[in-house]
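pinned: reference chain
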Amino acid sequence: MLLTCVLFFGSALAIYLACEYFVNGVEWFGRKLDLSATATGTVLAAFGTALPESAVTFVAVIFGKTPSARDIGVGAAMGGPLVLATIAYAVVGVALLCNRHRLRRTDRIIRVDHQRLARDQSWFLAIFVVKVGLGLVAFAFKPALGVLFLVAYALYVWREVRSEDSAPEDESLDPLKFRPHHAEPAMRWVVAQTVAALAVIAVAARVFVSQLESIGTAFGLPPHLVALVLSPVATELPETVNALIWVRQGKERLALANISGAMMIQATIPSALAIFATPWLFDTPLIVSGALTAVAIVYLWWLFRRGGVDARWLWPVGLLYGVFAAYVAWHFAGA
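pinned: its structure tokens
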């Protein structure tokens, strides 16, 4: 148990430190590729941090030898968006409130393109509704529809890469951590730092998830509770930590872009893989997960649609994950 605790906290620390290097490297990578400021978060950062959990889904649904093993992939494809739509957004709101005085902010307004984020929520919701709808019915050609989710993500990336925006004047780009004394580091150093940080994040995240499962077993928590409630939080830890780091730097625009982009990946790529390889039929906990995710997205769309979002309005969305955790505990306790 002592080794488990050491690995648990050690991997969490490793994820945080690696994310410091990753967000710094990915910002430089976006500048080198001449991407728009927001596209750096929605495409580069999101794809990098979502890669490990997408790999979990791929391994589970493609190489899983039993239906229960493949169900892990389906659960991951549904659990990720719920965590991001609730806990990750709540973390941004709380982090901004806690750092407001250090950032010398005179108000609590989140500095983002509110209309753009509202469009992202509506885009995600449209895809997510189709994704959940497919999980409620059975028909022969369902696996072929997985291609539509890949096409949807390709269109999203195309839109983000073509968009033109710029970072606010008060957002500065810190020197590359691998070359702190170089004003314009070479591309090879940018790539090396970003890839190295991502590799550490991937390994540390896997260690963190496995230790979390061990702790759940040691405390007698039901396996379903760990798989459906705790594991998704752990697998989405890199996105959440990235958001925390960027908010502390006063770059909530990048933090929310990273979350929004990761949600689009979770709604499309892992779902496509699971639809290709599994019946993609939901049980009651997955239906509840989908419903709560939709409620969170509608709330976020309403907030950003109105504009001038106060950071205090973000943290309540995190309570929806508590509702899901309570439901899962009650559901399996009575089973």
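why pinned: The chain has a mean pLDDT of 84. The radius of gyration is 19 Å.
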